[in-house]
């Protein structure tokens, strides 16, 4: 049985349709007038009322209970005066509840239909500031999923444009934190045929991490770097990984990707570094020499 909380009672009333008579509505208003902290009376008024009346209750909840899980009922109407007024209240609530993922999430959802970027910046910044708290990443993922649904339905900017912004933020987050869960979110977002090359790199990065090699996180970061178009980052992470790898086969997929974009010098340098570590593997130097001649080594033909 769910706990008896204002939020759960409110959900029960929503399930029942939240229909009440004029007399019942007047009773709720009287209860709030007598006791402003009567949350159970305020909630149905917030949900069912409009205009200035709803704004009054919404402002009260922001000031007194900004952590309460109201979902889309936090959403601000498309009215410039209301937006400006409630933005001020949310910024104050965020200041008073610094570090609260619940308050930041509610503030983001409040403006999801009027200022998507506000929530995007708020939650992605929180995820970067609190890398050890998965709630921030989950909040960002859920926010993006809803925003992309709006975009696909034509209720926000184009789906592909919003998807690319979401992907860019999550790529940056992965490169900062290395959390494999972010790769799973990226694979979900890149399911469109238009993003097939990116999806291939994410899948390859995920497979590298699952390999369990100590150098795998560097190889995965290099692959995500390639997805972002940052070849300098990919080179840097690959060469850093050369000092950590226990099995060079972990890097094979990345080496192929780099060779396909003409990074022969980088791959040759990597192979020679590995050859210095593993003197008993002459194949590594042979591959480096083949790359110098413009040939493509058969990585699959030799074990790690």
Considering the chains and any ligands shown, give keywords for the structure:
304 residues; mainly alpha; 16 helices; single chain; disordered N terminus
Characterization of the model:
The termini are far apart. Residues 1-17 have low confidence and may be disordered. The chain contains 16 helices and no strands. The longest helix has 19 residues, at 134-152. The protein is mainly alpha-helical. Helices cover 69% and strands 0% of the residues.
Question: What is the element layout, followed by pairings?
Answer:
Layout: H1 6-15, H2 22-34, H3 39-48, H4 51-64, H5 80-96, H6 101-110, H7 116-129, H8 134-152, H9 159-177, H10 180-189, H11 196-211, H12 216-228, H13 231-241, H14 252-260, H15 264-277, H16 282-292
Assembly state: single chain
Query: Main β-sheet, in a few words?
Result: none
Any idea what the radius of gyration is? Answer: 26 Å
End-to-end C-alpha gap: 55 Å
SSE string, helices as H and strands as E: HHHHHHHHHHHHHHHH
Q: List the total number of helices.
A: 16
- The rough form would be described as elongated
Mean pLDDT: 81
- Sheet/helix structural class: mainly alpha
Unreliable residue runs: 1-17
Please tally the β strands and state the result: 0
- Strand percentage lies at under 5%
Helical amount among residues, as a percent range? 55-70%
């Amino acid at each position: 049985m769910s706990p008896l909380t204002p939020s759960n009672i409110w959900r029960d009333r929503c399930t029942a349709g939240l229909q009440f008579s004029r007399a019942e509505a007047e009773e709720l208003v009287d209860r709030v007038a007598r006791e402003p902290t009567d949350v159970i009376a305020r909630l149905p008024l917030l949900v069912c009322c409009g205009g200035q009346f709803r704004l009054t209750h919404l402002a009260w909840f922001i000031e007194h209970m900004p952590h309460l899980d109201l979902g889309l009922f936090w959403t601000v109407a498309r009215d410039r005066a209301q937006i400006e007024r409630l933005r001020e209240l949310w910024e104050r609530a965020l200041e008073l509840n610094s570090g609260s993922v619940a308050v930041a999430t509610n503030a983001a959802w409040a403006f999801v239909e009027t200022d998507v970027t506000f929530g995007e910046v708020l939650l992605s910044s929180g995820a970067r500031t609190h890398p050890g708290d998965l709630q921030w990443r989950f909040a960002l993922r859920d926010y993006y999923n809803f925003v992309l649904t709006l975009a696909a339905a034509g209720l926000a900017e184009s789906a592909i444009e919003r998807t690319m912004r979401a992907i860019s933020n999550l790529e940056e987050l992965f490169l900062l934190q290395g959390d494999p869960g972010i790769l799973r979110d990226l694979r979900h977002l890149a399911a469109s045929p238009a993003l097939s090359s990116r999806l291939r790199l994410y899948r390859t990065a995920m497979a590298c991490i699952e390999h369990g090699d100590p150098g795998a996180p560097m190889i995965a970061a290099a692959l995500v770097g390639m997805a972002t178009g940052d070849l300098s980052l990919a080179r840097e992470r690959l060469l850093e990984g050369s000092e950590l790898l226990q099995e060079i086969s972990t890097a094979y997929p990345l080496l192929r990707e780099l060779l396909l974009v003409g990074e022969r010098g980088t791959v040759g340098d990597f192979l020679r570094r590995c050859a210095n570590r593993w003197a008993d593997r002459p194949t590594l130097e042979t591959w480096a020499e083949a790359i110098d001649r413009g040939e493509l080594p058969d990585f699959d033909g030799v074990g790690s």
